[in-house]
């Protein structure tokens, strides 16, 4: 057969990476014209060497950065991210060419480039074979016919560019990379959760979101709610960043959509730990990224209304919050991953946990399972070398099946076991052995599974996606000047475990907020208690706890016990069209604007009374906060009312049968108050006092909370009543705001697999820019010679 590439015995190469797959004479389209040379495909790279008496150019393309090959002539594919490396001014006469696509690192973290490299071989058959074989080498684990990526696209994530990102970047890369997909554009919050929970996903090879972390959080929670979840436990998940924070994408070194799309094409996966969070209501949520409480949670949730600013919203509002630092009462109980006594996570905890066995990251992880599969793959590559009649090394469906549904049982269950038996509140002696307790006041508690919580916030450089631990990063009782460097710096080397930022690796933890918040720094010093039943460990200088009644600086502000998950913050940009990551029902704009204007009239007039709706203002509780507890926030308390009229005027919202009034303390309180379940009438909260009066509902009753003691809305109240929460106690799970209250979290090690790029070095995951470069035209002077089946290049 004319032009048949010469094959070399694979056994001639001892190093796996040098496993030779194919070689043929091929000319490279270049700016210098068509250069004749030899093209060689190794398992880990494509090498082209010029054969010329005048020069010896070489091109090495790492397989890590190659994501597709087409029969297209040079220069055909051109879109924003693509630069055509090959010359286009050549006359292209034959159809014996093919083009290879690579993604290239770009200096300084800038958008990576996609390059094309076009070759001309001797026959059409040969170019077709090259294309097919290259696809095998690019994605050795899956054949095209086995691929169907379920893509969820959130059109409103981040700066609302997800659709454009998909159309202009992701789709072309999927097309070039022969990656079939099914696109689902999310219609509302919860859409992806419901789809992932209820639909048959068996035809999909992976589930990918074009969005931020919030949508992946939804998908994860939908999947883990499935009764047939075990069937899907190896379904790879993936993220193509188009959101605000994009913390997971950053941690996986796929910050640019191009990189993430290439990662999806290449279908490499790694194990990912999941945190299971059991809320006070008994509800379990799963998160892959983080739980935050205090400063960071407030920044994320309270800045919801600033989404127009993109990721800058976090910086802008972060500065505001940092300057007005809050301190939160609470206790953090944790089970250390490394026990100080036996230097490893002791068997005792596992025993205590009812036989729960967590795999170490080194043995029974999905990662290792995949490694074993890779071993099988290596064997497959070790089969007789490809030939023309059977050019491709395809993996049998069986091998594919092994990859997707490993026959090893996961070593974890979905149900928390390390914290399950622990009764709350924690009382003296009730913690299992080896648990430790840290008392607040905290500025913040971050529990993270990844180094980066957003593209520009490195929370913990020690965190790893599958080390079977949760990294706890907390600050207590520090000044804004102490925590500012940690919050602002892009590297944390200088701040961890000193300067007031502590980092502990834990298997599980329990956060018990006491519902106390202050803007004053406590005089108390840090203390760590081995266990609450060890009085000797107690520090007489200890900070406020839930039992502290007499603190001069801490006041109850919480409204514990509410279990609705729908939360909407109203910010200072109230009245704008806003979207919340967790709001299920839209806040009627009229309510927002009237509350706002009502507020301003109130503040302007300083009447302290109510406006036009004719309601009686709720009385200020006698033990209301003194103004100085809010320092600059409050000069004079204000009161605001919401009447049925406001809601009823909006045709989209059913006229409420009730009247409500509430009191607010300050503009800051207005900015930080949360409305939950606003589809029900007059669901509004504010300050530390709440009064809801039902005057038109049969069996009308009054709900009053004072001093943090909440009364549930009466049963007669429609739709379960108003669920109210002040965000001073909100916990943020992967960006989802959940109720205030004690929360139990533990690590479900290596529970799912995540699509990650081949260039990710997990041990260096806190660093970026690891994408290998394509070495193009680095002229190396030398001579190329061939002896039988061996091609050798000698440097001069
Ligand atoms: N069609 C939609 N309309 C309104 N909200 C939606 C829609 N689809 C999804 N959502 C909600 O948007 C929320 C946030 O989206 P996403 O995570 O994609 O963006 P983000 O918050 O900007 O990014 P990040 O989480 O990285 O900060 C999701 O939790 C989801 O509930």
UniProtKB/TrEMBL annotation:
Protein name per its UniProtKB record:
Uncharacterized protein
Q: Which organism is it from?
A: Kickxella alabastrina
